[in-house]
Amino acid sequence: MQYSLHPLVETDAHEGLVWVDWQKRLYFTSKPSSDYRTPSAIRYFDFKDRSIHTVIERSNMANGMCLTADKNHLLVAEQGFHDSPGCISRINLNSFCREIIVDNFKGLPFNSPNKIVQADSHFFFTDPDYGYYQGFKPQSELPTGLYSYDVQASQLFCLGDEFIVPHGLALSRNQETLFLVDNCSITEEKPFYDLNHEQIIFTLQLSCGSSNAKTETIIKIPPQGFIDGIIIGENKQLIFTSLNKLMTCSVQGENLQCLYENSEDINFVNIAMAEGRLYATSDNAIYYLET
């Protein structure tokens, strides 16, 4: 099955694609300036009037986002900015009021919270150290990690700190398996992305109220680009971006194949699914892909 690519709107869409059905809006975080002096914004594309609207112009370097279980709020992975600590925040979709949910682990500030997914009673987020390597944050005392937050108990758990660059996240439909991309791509010297490095997708079998997990490697992606967005497709397969490619494989890591490849200079960053379509960001536009 192959997809075709179509432009939706030209805009500075970078990360955090979230479809809110009751509003008919596609939310996203913008690309920060190249010198990182101007942080990302939070915006949305309104399908009713086909226009772009801004929720927060200068965010706390917002990156990944997801919808809460009640579908009335956004959970935002904020990387932090200079002297402002990274955190997970919640934004009310009616008032756009923002509140901080958690901004530290055992008293230590996070590195750069990046991707986030919501389960019924928990949310999960990755904390790589992009902010330090990109020069807009000091180095954290915490190792890079994967976290689970129990909403009802207001408790934060570290599910693992052995990953090199914990990045993209996807949660199975039954909420029993978490998929994690480890890019393994930051080097000690800039440029810090090593596109020739192998990428790894892990599965974590969740148990004990999602406060711990057993980690297993399901697939090693040959060096071919930088994996970023990852979702569970309608047929329960994994779909993920890899530079100018849209890739897929089974949840067991089998049958790796390319769904779409663009010969032009398009870097797919993030993906989301809404009303049977795939949507992808490329830093200067939002596209939709369909069969």
Automatic annotation (TrEMBL):
Q: What lineage is this protein's organism placed in?
A: Bacteria, Pseudomonadati, Pseudomonadota, Gammaproteobacteria, Cellvibrionales
PANTHER family xref list:
PUTATIVE (AFU_ORTHOLOGUE AFUA_1G08990)-RELATED, SMP-30_GLUCONOLACTONASE_LRE-LIKE REGION DOMAIN-CONTAINING PROTEIN-RELATED
Q: Where does the SMP-30/Gluconolactonase/LRE-like region domain lie?
A: 15-184
> A Pfam family in this protein?
SGL
The protein, known as:
SMP-30/gluconolactonase/LRE family protein
